[in-house]
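[Meeting: bench + compute handoff]

Bench side (C.D.) handed over the final construct sequence. Compute side (W.E.) agreed to return the predicted structure before the next meeting so the bench team could plan truncations. Sequence as handed over:
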Amino acid sequence: MLSFVTVLTGSISRFGWIVFTTVSSFGRFTDFAARTAMYIVCHPMSWLRWRQIGPQLYSVGVASIPVVAITGAFIGMILAIEGFAQFKAIGQEARMGGIINVSVTSQIGPVLAAVMVAGRVGGALAAETGTMRVTEQLDAMRVMGVDPIRHLVVPRVMACMIMTPILTIYSDILGSWGAWLVITKGYGVSSYDYWHFTAMFMGTWDPIAGLFKSLCFGASIGLISCYKGFYCAPGAAGVGRSATNAFVASFLAIIMLNLVLAKFLRSLWMMLNPDGIQSMLG
């Protein structure tokens, strides 16, 4: 009986500790994100200075262009290769360009670019800020009256928000051209059909929705990565774990945000275009 009570109280204690740490971490992240948003909106000069944001734009965006562009091109090629047999079976291979480009522009391109940024930049941001925390540089900034969030986090978050949509454009363009190369040169579909059905199927809304998604993805990557670094555990092992956790958390946030935003943007499009829905339904 005594052992049962001990096990029960231990389980309750562990469950309570998990709930407490989860709620406290959520509250701490909410405060972190709110303070960052306040500085972005109310104090734009904290990130508009080129000296502050320029190096971050290069690190997040320019240095990521090759990997995003190459990955986007190969994703477009893979979609064309895997989809051709199915489209040919129903005699619709000429329409592949439209289907692939809508998918790439509104769904695959933003997610792909964001995942590349999270993998290449997210861990680096967490490691950089985590090292500054471990070496007490953040405490030194506070002692001197400098807010680390304003001078460290805001430029990095804004760089992610600015460059992720730009990288998405690169991913979309290279994905579209990669699919075009395979479909026209490999399977004999005419270029006219490829671009004609792309223009027919893809409206203005698709790239706008994709860029809005990538903006949200970039904000989540910057916030999560800097947060993980700001509150990492002491020591080199803590910095390493924060970098790993930053990528994992950013990846999960991207996937969940994509689902939520896809539903929201689809509902918004249906509300703004009721005539388009009726024409689709016949």
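W.E. noted at the follow-up: The chain has a mean pLDDT of 85. C.D. will use this when planning the next construct.
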